[in-house]
């Protein structure tokens, strides 16, 4: 059994489907075939960028041939006539291909992601607040203090702990004139405490409740620049970068909402996020090129 959606800027046609266990990314998050509805918005390719576009129709077929399409690095299960975007090696559009026509010639690639358009819009979260939230949910913690009143009847404070010199420098630059206290621990780590009044203001203007559970939806709704700021902060905190070329390799995070948000942010920025590791354990998001070739 297979299904498809027809977005307004899609490439049209029917029976160009994926299996019923495939999920679609919408403004409401990842949805199953029986959860997505007409009017939901999903990210569709518009030239070289992604834009939010409404779903016009959801179709299901009870009996259709399914093939495995792809290679060792990435693959999908779809109907033989499912069409895919191809490019040349420089990323320029090179036409559509159907799954049954694989393998690709070495001169062509599949394009599996693209950055969200800078003018695609988003929630009101600024890049500065997005970066702070990125640090708070990775190498930080939101504390609910015992006296006073804000969330849940208690004031809040954000503490960020960092041991890497590069990370300490990035946090110090981000905070700038933000009211905070900085201290050194015996183990060599630096702790930054953001004052409660500033934290309350950030929570109020971003709509964040201070929980990690809210992070996937928050990141999904961010515009391009805020998504970039959140991802950059998460990368400084949890990422592995090749020192020789300053090339990003992977993010590491325990399975859960922050891990999910890392994958969503990577996709929105034009990476192909490849996920590895067991559910419930420490997992890895590899930020790969969106262009996949076959030999």
How would you describe what is shown here?
The chain has 295 residues and is α+β, with helices and mostly antiparallel strands. The chain is 22% helix and 36% strand. The protein contains six helices and 20 strands. It has helices at residues 127-136, 165-175, 196-206, 215-221, 224-238, 257-268, and strands spanning 2-7, 18-19, 24-26, 29-31, 41-46, 49-61, 67-70, 75-78, 83-88, 93-98, 108-111, 140-144, 156-162, 180-184, 190-194, 239-242, 247-254, 272-276, 282-288, 291-292. The strands form six sheets. A four-stranded antiparallel β-sheet has the order 2-1-6-5, with no helix packed on it. Strands 10-9-11-20 form a four-stranded antiparallel β-sheet, with no helix packed on it. A hairpin with a 5-residue loop joins strand 14 (180-184) and strand 15 (190-194). The protein is elongated and about 60 Å long. It starts with a strand and ends with a strand.
Which secondary structure elements does this structure contain, and how are they paired or packed?
Blueprint: E1 2-7, E2 18-19, E3 24-26, E4 29-31, E5 41-46, E6 49-61, E7 67-70, E8 75-78, E9 83-88, E10 93-98, E11 108-111, H1 127-136, E12 140-144, E13 156-162, H2 165-175, E14 180-184, E15 190-194, H3 196-206, H4 215-221, H5 224-238, E16 239-242, E17 247-254, H6 257-268, E18 272-276, E19 282-288, E20 291-292
Antiparallel strand pairs: 1-2, 1-6, 3-4, 5-6, 7-8, 9-10, 9-11, 11-20, 12-13, 13-15, 14-15, 16-17, 17-19, 18-19
